[in-house]
Amino acid sequence: MTTSLKADDTVQLGEEMHRLISELYPICRSITGDGVRKTLHILQQLIPIEVHEVPSGTPVFDWTVPKEWNIRDAYVLAPTGERVIDFKQSNLHVLNYSIPVHQRMSFSELKEHLFSIPEYPDWIPYRTSYYKESWGFCLAHNSLCKLVEGEYEVCIDSSLENGYLTYGEYYLPGKTDEEVLFSCHICHPSLCNDNLSGIALATFLAKHLSSQPRYYSYRFLFIPGTIGSITWLCLNEDKIHRVKHGLVISGVGDPGKMTYKKSRRSNAEIDKVVAYVLNNISENYQIEEFSPYGYDERQYCSPGFNLPVGRLTRTPFGQYPEYHTSADDLKFVNSNALAQSLVVYAAVVDVLEHNFKYLSTSPKCEPQLGRRGLYGNLGGQKLTKADEMAMLWVLNLSDGDYNLLDITERSGLEFAVINKAANTLFKSGLLKKL
Amino acid sequence: MTTSLKADDTVQLGEEMHRLISELYPICRSITGDGVRKTLHILQQLIPIEVHEVPSGTPVFDWTVPKEWNIRDAYVLAPTGERVIDFKQSNLHVLNYSIPVHQRMSFSELKEHLFSIPEYPDWIPYRTSYYKESWGFCLAHNSLCKLVEGEYEVCIDSSLENGYLTYGEYYLPGKTDEEVLFSCHICHPSLCNDNLSGIALATFLAKHLSSQPRYYSYRFLFIPGTIGSITWLCLNEDKIHRVKHGLVISGVGDPGKMTYKKSRRSNAEIDKVVAYVLNNISENYQIEEFSPYGYDERQYCSPGFNLPVGRLTRTPFGQYPEYHTSADDLKFVNSNALAQSLVVYAAVVDVLEHNFKYLSTSPKCEPQLGRRGLYGNLGGQKLTKADEMAMLWVLNLSDGDYNLLDITERSGLEFAVINKAANTLFKSGLLKKL
Amino acid sequence: MTTSLKADDTVQLGEEMHRLISELYPICRSITGDGVRKTLHILQQLIPIEVHEVPSGTPVFDWTVPKEWNIRDAYVLAPTGERVIDFKQSNLHVLNYSIPVHQRMSFSELKEHLFSIPEYPDWIPYRTSYYKESWGFCLAHNSLCKLVEGEYEVCIDSSLENGYLTYGEYYLPGKTDEEVLFSCHICHPSLCNDNLSGIALATFLAKHLSSQPRYYSYRFLFIPGTIGSITWLCLNEDKIHRVKHGLVISGVGDPGKMTYKKSRRSNAEIDKVVAYVLNNISENYQIEEFSPYGYDERQYCSPGFNLPVGRLTRTPFGQYPEYHTSADDLKFVNSNALAQSLVVYAAVVDVLEHNFKYLSTSPKCEPQLGRRGLYGNLGGQKLTKADEMAMLWVLNLSDGDYNLLDITERSGLEFAVINKAANTLFKSGLLKKL
Asked: Could B303 and C393 be called an inter-chain contact, meaning their C-beta atoms sit closer than 8 Å?
């Protein structure tokens, strides 16, 4: 297939993705604010993302675009004056979306604002409070245990004010305005698998597709989780019927196996295509039924839209201990896994791009392949048995009911072989596109 | 669920059902006659059953209401003058619907009218001859073997005359005139599992439901087998479209496991509900496909009606040796099994009563549960993970295609949890009833 | 069932089929020519086949009827003058459809026209070159190895000229002009299983059906493979809608198990009937999904026709080493296997002939079987439990949606029992034909 990635390219692409993740890692992102803007600015050096700013207070379906959050510094001073918690060491230390605070308090008062993970005492948890005004600090449980009674000084130099929700969009037009939607969330601070890996994959997939011939148009969304997809769906309701297939990209850099979560429809074309690709090129993978809990597929698959959008990750969120902790770092994601994930995504696009329905122009009895030079040999090369069978299958099932993936499944042959046969027959005039 | 039986109540209810069975046990019932009237009269002390009398000769579809049968006494005198068979000892001794006879005859002549079960030589069989005029006696095989040659005096003091077919009906109106039909047969004489157990369960289920709020209307039929259901269907043909669900109740007091026989439709709502309830609350059960042989489901599921009526029993008829013999007595049925059966029936009603389809009022993207106090905590109580997932599932699938049981199945959660979530969302205005 | 073969007859029929195969074996057949005419002439002594002659050059869909091929002699003379390859020894020695040739040539030049099977060095392969003008010889690999360098004389005394494509057709009218199509290919020279066995079975099945009452009309085609079915479909396009069921007959004399290849529709009535019959009377069989490779089902199941035509063989072609070699001889096929195959075909016809849909004339509640003498006893004979159940099933499911085979499957009873019950009920007026 013409658009698929060459194996040689992928090693290099994996390393480039990891470098991008490293560059984005230090930035303190949230669902709004300058962290998102900086992130999109860096991505714009690779692909021409369009940045959208939606004012706080904008009603979006049942929700309202929140105030914009920014943070400059945050720390806790121990009774000794020592900085025992320091935002500058890790942006995970601050409860994301903390309101500004600067005061002195007893340890017992402070303690109600501290979060740790006793099971992983060296890791800092990642916590947020987007829709309830609050403040807090996250820290390693071992650090928490060292804190003593006494008076502490607490400072969060943040702001929560009317501003904007920022998101990025990259649209690659194709032959048709029917779209494939790729969506990744960009709201997490220094966390690599969830979801700098998704940002990196989306960026490099977009870059790859920009240089390919395209039947479909492709839309890449770089949005804050939940409120971002809700906002985009609300502002683009008139275009949504164009979305024919979609995937939510996240968690694609960990060493676990690929996992596909089906769309709400459960048998949409994207569901079949991903299942075929995983079965065809992955050694190990799993497929899960839809559930209404998860990433932004929750919104795309809400009943009022019910878009054919699945979620393609490696280990699903919540199923690895590093999830939403400081251990989801630059070592947790590796360039090999990133490259393999990109190969799967590119192969999914490949199948989508060629999964046409054809109509046999000679449906009554078999056409005589021999007199067209389509039997035994083709253009000087001996046809394989599979090539000949593929032509018979495509001719037999091209009645308007079967697309090439359906024919692939019924024949037991490979999609690439079926697609090659369809191309040969199309060129010889024995098929027309439907 | 609001209508379900409390576990505490069921022990007592089981004992009350067994007492009712004991009270009804001595009466000689048949498909017509005073035995049926006496039986309904006793039931009327518990629930206000309406008694219908249909004249002999009334045409009912392909059948005709038969003459009324009554019996006062019956016996066989041995050559010695001893009463070797005595109706007063057991009403099973007389072939049910025997015409009157009083004559002397040789043993060989008499023998052609005697029925026994060699495999169970102590048990009296139960035999009938409703639609062919005949007479006979049933007795233990051991007793039969003791009879010697000689002249016997035979007397059956019965009558078979124009009269009535008697049946009882109890209608409990609900919010809608859509009905749930419960049907039990009342034509068997001193036999406990088949079917005094069914009569007792129907009576106590009706009593229970009479004190509950009801969405559906409920109709309880106490009818003679076959001719009773045919008669009722014929006289009520104009109402039959109201029957949305139904169950034939019989054999619910033996110690065997619960058995559900599906309706002819095989995937009616009642079929799914009973399967769910059995799976959810029974340790051991079985589900059988429909077959046109059995109790009155034969008539309800005839092709001209094809009602969604299944049959819910414990051990199916014919699959226990005591069936249709004197061993189906007061010891064979126990209050524990009766109580358990009642619990299952009440749970089935519970699911039916709440198995609505809802429509999300906020179908485009998820509604913001947090600002409605539906996230994390609800009314001061911490929501379980299952409660939160249930709300997401109900919101996601309430598009008009799924009822709550469908959502239960797709989510893998319990119906009670799904129903609770639906109620919460309904109260908050996020759902409307369809 | 009335039309089925008696077990006593089948031994004799198996032997007669083998004798017919022996008589046809020496003839050199091809897709055109006198071999086909001779073959049909012999068959006409058994059934009144109509012979059709279609001129060379006739366009038939995407194909053209080819020139007619005939052959008188062919040989290769060694440098010693010895006849080392001799058509008169076996007509497989000549590449079927070889153009005339008579010349001298070196061994290395000759070698390019010689075909053998190294894996089976004693067997002569069968090869053809219908649509590419060419010549050649087939021989045992052992014989090939004995040939030495030197000058050879090569002679093929054949002709390839404008003439006719010859095929046979036998039409047996029934009560309806809806047809069952049986098709066998007659283009193979001295090869027994593929396909003299098919020709013999078709002939004897036709002979058998000619003496039976018939609901359907039956059409038997004796045609050259591929071009024959294409020609017939093209010339009879206006009649093709009458074909309600069909089977391609081939390879029915080898000792392997029966194999059914489904029609393209995969759940056509013929697919269900053959599966039922094989399951009911064969000890060992297999069922394969449709594929577009094979015999003339390729044409009948092309998308423009999509006829409900399956293929019923013993071991499928290509799955036994004797296939398309001289080892597919008179010893490879046996009269026992031929007879068993005929029994299966006759049983398939039996089920098709009786697989009606009926409509109950008394669909509301059960009809009273007793007063019609249809219960317990029938015409002096005690009804079996299966007979009574069969009547209940037929009455219950005769609502217009189920044919008798559907009822057979849902009831788990045998088709013969269901059919008998349907006949009884039909005679009593409780069913009408749909």
From this structure: no
Q: Shortest CB distance from B299 goes to which of C365, C370, C411?
A: C365
CB contact under 8 A, C302 and A368: no
Q: How far from each other are the two terminal CA atoms of chain B, in whole angstroms?
A: 20
Q: Are the Cβ atoms of C229 and A365 closer than 8 angstroms?
A: yes
Domain limits of chain B?
A: 7-66+164-354, 69-161, 357-433
Q: Do C63 and A370 touch (CB under 8 A)?
A: no
Question: Is residue C228 within 8 Å of residue C298, measured between CB atoms?
Answer: no
Q: Residue B71 CA to chain centroid, in angstroms?
A: 27
DSSP states along C171-210: EE--SSS-EEEEEEE---SS-IIIIIIHHHHHHHHHHHHH
CATH assignment of B7-66+164-354, among 3.40.50.150, 3.40.630.10, 1.10.260.40, 3.50.50.60: 3.40.630.10
**What Å distances lie between residue A94 and A116, A224, B328, CA to CA?**
12, 18, 75
Are A371 and C131 a contacting pair at CB < 8 A?
yes
Closest by Cβ to C364, choosing from B131, B293, B305: B305
Contact between residue B415 and residue B405 where contact means Cβ atoms under 8 Å apart:
yes
Q: Name every chain C residue with its beta carbon within 8 A of the beta carbon of A363.
A: 302-304
Q: Quick check: B400 and B434 in contact, CB under 8 A?
A: yes
Residues of A in contact with C304 (CB under 8 A): 360, 363-365
Contacts of A364 in chain C (CB under 8 A): 61, 233-234, 237, 302, 304-305
Chain B residues touching residue A236 (CB < 8 angstroms): none
CB spacing of A303 vs B370 below 8 angstroms: no
Contact list in C for residue B266 (CB cut-off 8 A) is none
Closest listed residue to residue C91, CA positions, set C125, C114, C122: C125
Q: What is the rounded distance in angstroms from the CA atom of residue A228 to the CA atom of residue A233?
A: 9
- Give the closest residue to A80 by CA, choosing from A19, A134, A6, A150: A150
Question: Which residue of chain B is at minimal alpha-carbon distance from A240?
Answer: B364
- Given a contact cutoff of 8 angstroms between Cβ atoms, the answer to whether B254 and B58 are in contact is no
What ipTM is given for this predicted complex? 0.95
Instruction: Check B389 against A63: CB less than 8 A apart.
Output: no
Residues 6+ apart with CB under 8 A from B40: B49, B51, B166, B168, B186, B222
Residue of C nearest to B60 (CA): C365
Q: Give residues with Cβ within 8 angstroms of C248, minimum separation 6.
A: C183, C184, C294, C295, C296, C297, C300, C309, C310, C311, C312
pLDDT, tens digit only, all 434 positions of chain A:
445 677 678 899 999 999 999 999 999 999 999 999 999 999 999 999 999 999 999 999 999 999 999 999 999 999 999 999 999 999 999 999 999 999 999 999 999 999 999 999 999 999 999 999 999 999 999 999 999 999 999 999 999 999 999 999 999 999 999 999 999 999 999 999 999 999 999 999 999 999 999 999 999 999 999 999 999 999 999 999 999 999 999 999 999 999 999 999 999 999 999 999 999 987 799 999 999 999 999 999 999 999 999 999 999 999 999 999 999 999 999 999 999 999 999 999 999 999 999 999 999 999 999 999 998 777 777 889 999 999 999 999 999 999 999 999 999 999 999 999 999 999 999 999 98
> Quick one: A387 exposed, middle or buried, by C-beta within 10 A (0-12, 13-18, 19+)?
middle
Please name the member of A132, A293, A302 whose beta carbon is closest to the beta carbon of B365: A302
Return left, alpha or beta for A361; rule: phi > 0 is left, psi -120 to 50 is alpha, else beta. alpha
State the CATH class of domain B69-161: alpha beta
Beta bridge partners of B218: B172, B180
Give the Cα separation of C31 and C227 in Å (integer).
8
Please answer yes or no on whether B302 and C411 come within 8 Å at the CB atom. no
* CATH architecture for segment(s) B357-433: Orthogonal Bundle (1.10)
